[in-house]
Amino acid sequence: MSLEWEQVVVHAEDPAALGQWWADALGWVVVYTSEHEFEIRATPDRLPGLAFIRINEGRKAKSRLHVDFRPDDQEAEVARLVAHGARRVDIGQGEQSWVVLSDPEGNEFCVLGPQQ
C-alpha cells in the first residue's frame, strides 16, 4: 500500500479570501479555485498543499489542528505576519519559545523559536 499526502483541508467561510491570505503569507501559488474551493501549494507540482473549502458556519471551538512554522528569524517573521493581518492569540500557552498567531478567520498557528 502507498499513500501520498495531497493536502491539508481548512474549512473557511470565505475560501478565496483566506486562501489568498495564506498564499501571500507563505509566498505560495494558487493551483485551483472555484466557488467553494481554493488550493495553494509551494510550487504547482509540490505536495502537500492547503485546500480551503467553504463551510457555512463560524468556528465554534479552539482549532484541533494547527500548523507550526520555524523561521530563520522568529521576531521578524511574527512582525511580518502581524503586519499582514495575523493576530497574536493566547490559548493558555504561558511563556513559551513559540508565538501563537491566528489567521483572519481565527485559525491558530505557531511561529517556533530557534531549533534546539
From TrEMBL:
Q: Where is the VOC domain?
A: 4-114
Q: Which domain of life is it from?
A: Bacteria
Q: Which InterPro entries match?
A: Glyas_Bleomycin-R_OHBP_Dase (IPR029068), Glyoxalase_6 (IPR041581), VOC_core (IPR037523)
Pfam entry (one): Glyoxalase_6
Q: Please give the name of this protein.
A: VOC family protein
User: Taxonomic lineage per UniProt?
Assistant: Bacteria, Bacillati, Actinomycetota, Actinomycetes, Kitasatosporales
